[in-house]
Design goal:
With 210 residues, the chain is an alpha/beta fold. It has seven helices and six strands, in the order αβαβααββαβαβα. A four-stranded parallel β-sheet has the order 3-2-5-6. The chain has a two-stranded antiparallel ribbon with strand order 1-4. Helix 6 links the parallel strand 5 and strand 6.
Length: 210
């Protein structure tokens, strides 16, 4: 990807490397999981894009997929609990105990945070360092090269990415963020899982087994 050669990315890379060096074991996710969203859901497989904000700032939670945690993490992060509640309300799915969403990624759901790294206990600590430019470029690349995708944008930060998407060629679903502070303001009851699947099926694509 040409973004890796841009001056802003060189500056971002320098900042991130310095953060890992200055705060050992306190920058998340671990280095080889920063780009895991792309490894778990390659470009050619993308059908749905879910945008998060930045990784969980709690040790052991972030592993490169937005809203997801490793299988052994308990209790689940509160935003993920609310996502599961809405999944239950929308589709009747049993609420899982396992917070690993890799099975979504393997079906074509790109679980992308707007910012890909964070320092322990400090949400937004790596924002405005260049990650937003990088993830804007990812969305622009998808928009230019793929159509009939579903973009699920929860919360104001994710919704800003909508300007990079052609709404005539894709489905954009927006609601409040699933965090406890805002989930009751429009996230609960949004029905995005059903709406996404209905759209995919209407375009002769396989629905996601949420």
């Amino acid at each position: 990807m040409s973004e890796f050669n841009q001056p802003y990315f060189e500056s971002l890379e320098s900042f991130v490397k310095q953060e890992y060096a200055l705060h050992p074991n306190e920058v998340f996710p671990i280095g080889d999981q920063i780009f895991r969203a792309f490894d778990a859901c390659p470009f050619e497989n993308v059908k749905v894009v879910i945008l998060g904000q930045d990784p969980y700032p709690t040790r052991g939670h972030a592993h490169g997929l937005c809203f997801s945690v490793e299988q052994n993490i308990h209790p689940l992060p509160r935003s993920l609990k609310n996502i599961y509640k809405e999944l239950n309300n929308d589709l009747g799915n049993e609420i899982p105990e396992n917070g690993d969403l890799v099975h979504w990624a393997e079906q074509g759901v790109l679980l992308l945070n707007s910012v890909l790294t964070v320092r322990k206990g400090c949400p937004d600590s790596h924002s405005k360092k260049g990650w937003e430019l990088f993830t804007d470029a990812v969305i622009q690349c998808l928009n230019q090269n793929k159509t009939e995708l579903v973009y699920i944008l929860w919360g104001n930060k994710a919704q800003r990415k909508a300007e990079n998407v052609n709404a005539n060629n894709n489905l954009i679903l927006m609601s409040a963020h699933p965090s406890p502070l805002s989930a009751s303001r429009g996230f609960f009851g949004c029905g995005h899982f059903t709406k996404a699947n209905n759209y995919l099926v209407s375009k002769n694509k396989t629905a996601i087994n949420w």
